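QA checklist item 7 of 12: single-chain prediction sanity check.
[x] sequence parsed
[x] length recorded as 158
[x] structure emitted
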Amino acid sequence: MKTNYLFPNKFKRIGWLILIPSAIVGLVTLIYEYEPSFLGFNVPAIFIDDFFTDKKLFGMVNNNILNEIFGILIIISSLFVAFSKEKSEDEYISKIRLESLVWAVYFNYGILLFSILFVFDFSFLWVMIFNMFTVLLFFIIRFNWQISKLKKSANYEE
């Protein structure tokens, strides 16, 4: 089966090498609210709504870019891990990939619907921030779990 939309297999290892440390260090910096001063820059922004100034469509904002760096690293590495070919990519692997993606979307939006109904105020903003990453993470977890089950059953049959 021709899969032009998948990265080569070597991207999976690169993705894991970036994803694991980025996720751990990113969560630690969020929990401890660590923002090193040398990463504070004036950056271009859209939809500026400051308490002390007027609302603007475009402008410059002083921002610590650490969260943006980790967010970008996690998204790119998750894409590498999720959408890299397996060593032996066949139609059954493609079926598992598709089912895992559908399951991840259903599961993610189930959590989002629950959050819309029962989570409010600033906590809901945090749910939405984490929701950017969870579709890919749920897909990675389910896909790798299904692949490991497939490998175990293949070893069992031998």
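[x] summary fact logged: The chain has two domains: 1-85, 90-158.
[ ] second reviewer sign-off
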